[in-house]
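Troubleshooting: if your tokenizer reports a length mismatch, compare your output against this known-good record of 250 residues.
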Amino acid sequence: MITTQKLLGAMTAMMIAVSTTAQSAAAVTIVLVHGALIDGSSWRGVYDVLTRDGYRVSIVQQPLTGFDEDVAATKRVLDQQDGPVILVGHSYGGSIITAAGSDPKVKALVYVAALQPDAGETSAQVAPPMPPASNDLKRTKDGFIFLDPAKFAADFGADLPKAQAEFMARSQMPVSAAAFDAKLTAAAWRDKPSYAIIATQDRALNPELARWMAKRAGSKVTVLKASHAVHISHPRAVARVIATAARAVK
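Known-good structure output:
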């Protein structure tokens, strides 16, 4: 039989746990970095989950005009933060956070279906696009890359609602081809804890290459049955991994 005293004790413990979690969330900022072809609005679902849980969240809107410019845009957002940061990157955004993550505010890195290059490597070298997505890439006259809109859904977000995938196909942000040929001068995952989400249905980044990169980096791996757009199709699952990284910050 549960006594009143035991019930009150359990309720008190629960309230303390909730308070501690809220304080921990408030002390950490999550910075989200989008990948190629999309923009920061792709993080909306993850943002909603994290902010409801009490986390402060900032989103980088890098221009995708060149690797140095994209890293600079990320550092610009990091400079605005007070306290510890969990830096999260999707796809090509993984290369960006690998470079920008050397900032002392960054306490952990989360790679979401993302590239994890090492110092001296380029994004194209470590994880080149795989068929069929590689065959569906188009190039503009001034050196930017985008996906054939008719193939976007299948290659990028096969598990998204049809209307959403079609809209994303027509609102793509082309990325500078040269960005994938820029060599990294440092790799933040060598000095900081990292987490990696592998999307098993990914048709843009080979899941086996993603596993290899995560293993090399010593990342804690979460596997999700999802497309390359895993952060859009599975926002709660992605947010849980980010929250796990945040709770580990001392």
